[in-house]
C-alpha cells in the first residue's frame, strides 16, 4: 500500500510520500535511544508542562487537523473536531494524573519483617523507545492514547502509522516538536508494513503497542514474543448490544444508531450485533431501522453529514461481500444492503444497513463488519441473549439495556468482553482502562493500567 493521502470522498490522490530508507530509519532509532537516556530523568512537572503545551497547540490547530483527518479517511468533520478535542483532554488528564499514578507504592501488607527488610517499595520506571503501530480509523486519538501516557512515564515513542494517513502522522511529530519536547522524544516513521518486523527486532526498541486488525496483531505479537518484548494489542471487535424488555426502547434505539454508525461504522468498539429480547424485538427494530434510514449520508466536510465514505475502496468491497454473503444465505436487508449510487457522491460510500435473519453459517456472524452495517438477532430470554453475545471470536466491549439489576449482574458476570456499558454506548475515556478479551487482544490502554503497561515495575528492598 503506497504512503499517500487519497480522499475517500472522491478517490483523488492528493499527496504521495516516499518511504524512509534504512539510513534514515537507523538515524531515528539512534536518536530515540539517545533521547531516552536523558528524557527518562526529567521530572514529572516538566513532562506535564510539555504535554499541557501540546494540548494547547492541539486546541489551536483543531479546525485544521480535523480537515486533514476528514480528507485522509473520510470521517464527518464534526466528529473529526471532536476527536481532536478528546485528544487534548486526554493529554491534560495524563499531565495532571501521571505522577500520582506512578508514585512509589508500599506493599499492601505493610509488615515485611519476615523478608528481612526494613522497607519495601514498588517503583514504576520507563522501559525505553516504544514502537506504536497505529490504524487510520481514529488517526489522532489512537496515537495520543498511547503517546500521552508513554511520554508521561518517561518513555519515548516511535510511530508507524497507517499508510493512508501520512499527513496526520507527520502532524503528530510536529505537534510534540512545537510543544518543546526534545528531538527524538516522539518520531514518525514513514515506512511500510514490511519494515515493522526489523524495527521491532532491534534491541533498542523495548516494547510495542498495536491497534488494528487481527492478522496485524498476530504478526506483531509473534515477533515481540520471539524477542521477549512487552506488547499490548487492541484488535477487532464485534460488540453485542443487548436490549431487554425493561429497557427504555426509544432511548435504546436512538443510541443504537449512533453506536453503530459512529466514524462511518469504522470503529472497533462500535456496537455491531443487536440482540433483542423477543418481547420487544419488533418495537425496537421498527425504531432502529427508522433511525438508520433517517441518517444524512454525504460529503464528510459538510456540517450536516452524519455518515461519510468508508476510508478505502477495499474497505467498501469487504463490507459489500459480507452483506452479499448474508443476503444470499437468507438474511433480509431491512434498509440499505447495496452500494450507494449517487452521482454527487463518487467516493467509497456504503449506506446504513440493517440485516435480520442472521444465522451462524453467515460470514457476518463470525467476522467484523467495518462499516455502517448492523445485524439484528432475536433472543428468547436472557440466557439466549448471553449465548448469542458470546458467540464471537472477539471480546472488546459490550452494551446492555435493562432496568433490572439482577439482569445487570448476570450480564456483567457472563459477557466475555473488556467492558460492559449499561444503558449507554461504549466510549473510551482517559480514566477508564480500555482493552479486550479473546481475539480482541490483550493488555490495557488508558487509566493507570495503561500508563503502567510500559513501565518496569521494580521492587526496591531495603535491609534492616
From TrEMBL:
Cross-referenced SUPFAM superfamilies: ALDH-like
EC number assigned by the record: 1.2.1.79
InterPro entries, per the entry: Ald_DH/histidinol_DH, Ald_DH_C, Ald_DH_CS_CYS, Ald_DH_N, Aldehyde_DH_dom, ALDH_GabD1-like, GABD/Sad-like
Keywords: NADP, Oxidoreductase
PROSITE patterns cross-referenced by the UniProt entry: ALDEHYDE_DEHYDR_CYS (PS00070)
GO MF, one annotated term: succinate-semialdehyde dehydrogenase (NAD+) activity
Domain Aldehyde dehydrogenase: 3-460
One Pfam family named in its UniProt record: Aldedh
Domain of life: Bacteria
NCBIfam families xrefs: PRK09406.1
Family: Belongs to the aldehyde dehydrogenase family.
Record's protein name: Succinate-semialdehyde dehydrogenase [NADP+]
Organism: Streptomyces davaonensis (strain DSM 101723 / JCM 4913 / KCC S-0913 / 768)
